[in-house]
Design goal:
This protein is of the alpha+beta class and about 625 residues long. It folds into 4 domains: about 140 residues, Thrombin, subunit H; about 180 residues, no CATH class; about 120 residues, Ubiquitin-like (UB roll) (Roll), CATH 3.10.20; about 160 residues, no CATH class. Helix content is about 15%, strand content about 40%. The chain contains 10 helices and 33 strands. It has a 6-stranded antiparallel beta barrel. A 6-stranded antiparallel beta barrel has the order 11-12-13-16-15-14. The protein has a 5-stranded mixed β-sheet with strand order 23-33-26-27-31. α4 packs across α5 and α6 packs antiparallel against α7. The longest helix is centred in the C-terminal third of the chain and has 18 residues. The N terminus is likely disordered.
């Protein structure tokens, strides 16, 4: 209530200020340049002072905006972190304080005061803004490599009680955000929403993935990007770019589809640039390309005015994303993950009828990379325009992790009894693999390349394990016995396969079971163990991803009565009771583990071009 009263009293004082005239402000026609600049002390700020701010309304050339100081909102962002409240006139009287103006430098008597960074809540008739003092922004460089606890990442999206069941993991966050019909509340004075420009994304993709940004306080806007943005190498004229007042774009995705966050440059000393005046994601230390941004137009609105822009050439790298602004280094190169995606559509004769290739780069971050991988895969499928309720998707991906063996991932996704579209289910599966690779590692792995092929098959391909038959269920250790397995497809005749099952030489006498199952049945306990323990070793995570079972194979296992323990994603089969008792007492391990009363010794697997579901047990007797 106290802060609200302070802001209201400051706004009332606007009517008491003298009429503002552009002629009263010096240097209104001289745009600021890079280099050292004298700073205006915050302690000298007084109500009624007049200055000028610079921002781009259209194109790439900054234009002046008259500014009149209303007052200082003390401790608005924390102890000794004041915000200067001001009113913009000139063109800003029509556009209001627009998304993308964040970072617009404000000068009084030719001295840099700070950056426009906040705006009054929606539907304000006046262009009232908050200015972050320049000293707070300069302090960004003083931070170490610590990461803020209040960063804005997809895992911070709240999952409310939903009327429909939601899947687990990253997909649940996306679907929960999409199903939310309420916009986030806007306080009296809030940071200007950073416009996230999505270019090359379909309407369906924007509809599904924009809500994540909206819930994190960012606004999604449609825009474009130049072909030069595909390169992560800084442009040749980087040294003369990013003048104060020019537009800047932080690059999350570049290439055939782009995703950028826009704002304005506040300060440039020739090598180091400051912008925004507030955080983008508040990630702390960061490595993200920054690019030029050409503004198409500034949309005027009393609700959510914003700039529409085209990101063009990369000129450097973002190094810090902090509470009071972002800091970039001109001429530097940021690491990105190069992705090549092949999308093919097959006809019923199993011939390719249409295909498209996509090449793009993805920003590297523990929490954002999985989400971006998910969004780009879904968008690539949307671009094919071959959606069908009965279609099945077949995916094969290869991840080249520096210093590690190649990760190979294979799956099929058929329509499920859920309102979630099949491509979204597949995208969620894909994003989850990157989530495991990035979140479970104590050090971010370096991905040299990601190659993925997705095939769109024109019918629902699901086959359920129905039964199995053996000519003689009395078996001898050390032999192989043929077993017939029967599967029921979604449509069509029953599928029959003959599988040879090896009976181990040391298998004890008596009754045993042969289990014919899908991947989920065989991996259930191992997946539970995975959720209990965090892996802090990249090689171990890479190995486990490569060992994952595929859902388009039928697995044949021999069931034994001795227990299996799953700990730290390690499988310890057929443990003697004495060893299990020691583990349960806590003397042998400090980690959590789960156990099953039986052990499934996998014998073989049979590939199918369908999603295999279900399981069936066949009893055999060892002589």
């Amino acid at each position: 209530m106290l802060r609200r009263a302070v802001v209201l009293s400051l706004l009332i004082s606007v009517s008491l200020l003298p009429a503002f005239s552009e002629t009263a402000v010096p240097n209104m026609t001289i745009a600021p340049k890079a280099g050292q600049v004298e700073l205006f002390p915050e302690s000298d700020v007084k109500p009624g002072m007049k200055g000028v701010a610079w921002t781009v309304f259209q194109g790439s050339k900054p234009e002046p905006m008259p500014v009149e100081i209303i007052g200082v909102w003390q401790n608005a962002w924390g102890p000794k972190q004041d915000i200067i409240v001001a009113k913009l006139t000139g063109k800003a009287s029509r556009t209001n304080v627009a998304g993308g103006m964040s970072g617009s430098p404000v000068y009084i008597d030719g001295k840099l005061l700070g950056a426009i960074s906040l705006r009054l809540s929606v539907f304000s008739p006046d262009a009232i803004c908050g200015i972050t003092p320049i000293q707070l922004m300069l302090d960004v460089k003083e931070f170490d490599q610590s990461r803020p606890s209040d960063s804005r990442t997809p895992d911070k999206v709240q999952i409310a009680d939903a009327a429909r069941p939601l899947p687990e993991g990253l997909l649940a966050r996306v679907m929960a955000a999409s199903s939310s019909g309420n916009l986030p509340e806007t306080p009296m004075m809030a940071p200007i929403a950073t416009p996230i420009t999505m270019s090359g994304f379909t309407d369906d993709s924007i509809k599904e993935f924009a809500p994540i940004f909206n819930q994190l306080g960012l606004a999604v806007a449609q825009g474009g990007a130049g072909g030069d943005l595909d390169s992560t190498t800084p442009a040749t004229d980087w040294a003369t770019s990013m003048q104060p007042g020019e537009s800047i774009a932080a690059v999350l995705v570049s290439g055939d589809m782009t995703m950028t966050g826009g704002g304005t440059v506040t300060y440039n000393d020739g090598k180091r640039v400051l912008a925004f005046g507030h955080p983008m994601f508040n990630l702390g230390p960061v490595d993200m390309p920054i690019a030029k941004d050409s503004i198409i137009t500034t949309l005027a609105s009393s609700y959510q005015p914003t700039k529409m822009g085209n990101a063009t050439e990369v000129v450097g790298a973002l190094r810090q994303d902090r509470h009071s602004g972002i800091e970039g280094e001109l001429g530097a190169t940021a690491q990105m993950i190069p992705v090549t995606m092949h999308v093919r559509s097959f006809d019923r004769a199993n011939s390719i009828r249409k295909s498209r290739d996509f090449h793009f780069n993805v920003f590297v971050d523990q929490k954002w990379t999985p989400y971006l991988m998910m969004a780009t895969l879904f968008n690539s499928l949307s671009n094919l325009n071959d959606f069908s309720e009965e279609a099945t998707y077949r995916l094969h991906g290869e991840l080249q992790v520096q210093g590690q063996q190649r990760i190979e991932l294979t799956t099929m996704q058929a329509p499920a009894e859920t309102p979630i579209p099949t491509p979204m289910l597949l995208a969620g599966w894909w994003g989850d693999k990157f989530n495991r690779l990035f979140v479970n590692s104590n050090k971010l792995p370096k991905l040299d390349a990601v190659n993925v092929t997705v095939d769109l098959l024109p019918e629902r391909r699901i086959a359920q394990i129905e039964s199995a038959w053996i000519a003689d269920n009395k078996v001898t250790p050390g032999t192989e016995v043929p077993v017939k397995v029967f599967l029921k497809p979604y449509r069509g005749e029953r599928i029959e396969r003959t599988v040879k099952v090896k009976i181990p030489a040391g298998l004890g006498h008596g009754e045993h079971e042969i289990l014919f199952s899908d991947a989920d049945t065989l991996s259930r306990f191992q997946n539970i163990a995975s959720s209990l323990n965090r892996i802090e070793d990249t090689p171990q995570t890479v190995a486990m991803l490569n060992e994952e079972r595929s859902n388009n194979r039928l697995y044949v296992s021999l069931i034994e009565s001795q227990p299996t323990v799953y700990s730290d994603e390690k499988v310890l089969p057929s443990l003697p009771a004495s060893v299990l008792n020691v583990m349960q007492s806590g003397r042998a391990t400090n980690h959590e583990f789960v156990s099953s009363p039986e052990s499934a010794r996998e014998q073989t697997s049979v590939p199918f071009d369908e999603v295999v579901t279900g399981n069936y047990s066949l009893k055999v007797y060892v002589n």
